[in-house]
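TICKET #2291
ISSUE: user wants both folds in one file
ATTACHMENT 1:
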Amino acid sequence: MIFALATPVAQSAIGVFRVSGAGCCVKFNEILNKPISDYRRVFLRDILWDGVIIDRCSIVFYSAPSSYTGEDSVEIFCHGGLSVIKSLTGVFLSLGFREAGPGEFSRIAFENGKLSLNEAEAIVDLIHSEDESRGMLSSEAVAGKLSNMIRTLGNRVDALRVFIEGSIDFSDEDYDFISEGSVNERLVKIRSDLRNLIDSSLVSTKKLTKNRVLFFGPPNTGKSSLFNRVLGFDRALVSNVPGTTRDLIDSEIFYNSINMELVDSAGVRETDDLIEAKGVARSGDEVRDSALVLVVLDHLTESLAKDFSLVLNKKNHLFVFNKSDERSPRQAYDCVVSAKSGEGVQELKKLIFNSIQKNNRGSKKTFIIRERHLILFKSALSSLDACIDKISKESDVDIAAEDLRMVRSSFDEFLGVKYPDELLGDIFNDFCIGK
């Protein structure tokens, strides 16, 4: 039997504990002022220990398999005082309950068939979602929509294997299984559907889900000063010496309902300084992983604008002219600011917000998937291509059947029907305690 606090350890109005395991309801009844005999209903009860009332709580019992984990479960809604939380933790340990590890409730739910592996992963993405659009994409996966689509594709693959294997087993019969089953056409349609699913999915990374905004550009253009000004306090070291910022500095800002992670980077230039060179290289990696890149230039570096346009290519970016208090720009910019006086900074914040919003809306994505899922889907595409090639040439039909088996294997690993032993640990260790 396991237990965990499902809410943050902080003073609040309500704290929520979760308990799961065979016999936990019977065990928990031992410390209530009045036993609970009904399930899936809310009861108000006093929790007693050594004759002392610990707290008056709302309590819900769940019986297996009709619970989140598929086991007998209890949810306790207590007052959120730290002393209450500490006392209840002691009570659970004294009853013989073990404190749950990260994601252990969801792992049990997966092992008991209450969730597919993708649905379990989507729970983490939903918890980590920084804005409504990504939250909605994660919710679709939590609800099982993506898993159901993959199951349907897998069933279609299985149906085609029947025709392909039939053409092998009954090759002497006067019946063309491949032609009569429209195998090639159906294979092409499955491939098209899978390709469309990949194209309509957003590959989730911790960096991208945080709406990372990278301050990028040559050294000494005032990136750090502008970073501090937008943030509202001094987070980055500021100096007139080029190359002061030698590592990535990040900090979060909440603006107009969007949480953004601002990242100050090392100046992009040729350098013999090994430490700074590493910072510049890391800045390049951040360009790829950022939702928006702010190219910060000044009157001494305006000529580099075209070079940065070529480097960024189709990456979402804005050109910002800094130090307007010293000199006006000679060309057009998305925003003109002075980090020193604060002129234009509020307008820059609005531009950043609008760009992030437009980028999120314009993506027109249907699901959030992980890098693991993308690898599996691309593997399935490759096997489908190999199968289609063999079927169209009417050669190596037996190997074509094996190609379809590999497609199904990729889908099964996505759903968690089969998986490497270390995979579950990697996935559920990302969960918070109590989930």
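ATTACHMENT 2:
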Amino acid sequence: MDFDIADFHAEAIRTPSHEDVSAMRELLCETLREAGLEPTVDEFGNVLASKGSPTDDTSHIVLNTHIDTVAPHVPYERDGDVVCGRGACDAKGPLAALLAAFLRLEPTAGRLTLAITPDEETLMTGAAGLADRLTADGYIVGEPTDLDVCIAARGQCEGTITLEGEGGHAASVPADRNAVFGCSSVLSALERFDEAVGPGDDPILGGPKLTATMLEAGDAPNRVPETATVTFDRRSVPPETSESFRGDLKPFLEERVPDGLSVSVDLIRPDTPFPTAFVTDEDERLVGVLEEASGGAVRPFGAATEAGFFAADAPTVVFGPGVLADGDGGVAHAEREYVHFSDIERAADVLTEALRELVG
């Protein structure tokens, strides 16, 4: 098949996938069918296609990225080498590069699987579902890394801290029973949490980050509310998980809020998976092969990603064209989202060269 990266990338950006990925998934499946492949869609909405036949002496490499984008949709526009639009770099640019390399190769010494997820920007149930059934020797996850080889990323979860106290007239409720006053002790505790009981710094990722992001309390200026809520964002490093973090945070807060208040900690969307932190050893063959082919730096990735779901199984790297941000501010998820098309072509060539080394 004569796969045209520019045409596919343009059509992918023109296909909105911020609310419903059905049309984008069909574009991907139709492209694979035109190449003579038989893609499948599993119960999580993942698109899968494979080539080659693994044996005990050969490798199985999985190529992964996602087809969903954040809102709002931004139309496709191209000016020379610069392609703009929603998904240009996150992650339809990486998808185009991964797909080009996948279609070019006919593995002779291993197996190559394309595994594309539908909900990386939201629930991540697709990647979690894949992690339960895929086994491989290495995973390459497509995200905008500026063609660097990223071997680590922080995990991420969100949650709420709810203080319960006494509600009533502002003239009568004592301060130590006032949930709004109690927020000051919570915010102070959050600032000290990692120094006191956090997991410490990771040699690659550095330290974790705990950020208070929202405050909610009250419905009238002369009434003390029964509850006040602090919302937080947690960026974790190994070995911390969302559940271990929650388990450490609750007793830490209980010791620091006034005795007249009760405190609870709840994760947002606890029934869906959170991206986990991961670190791949830079001495792994997958890292070295991709580093040699790309000439890029080996470094951590700057955002949460699905890669952590796969890293528990095998060495995992994040790689692709585009950047999360540049000197003028945010790029991925921004109104100005863009990618240099020459970087997509370069990424496809790098992936092709690396995969030839890995699977023949």
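RESOLUTION: both attachments delivered.
EXTRA DETAIL ON ATTACHMENT 2: The CA atoms of residues 110 and 203 lie 33 Å apart.
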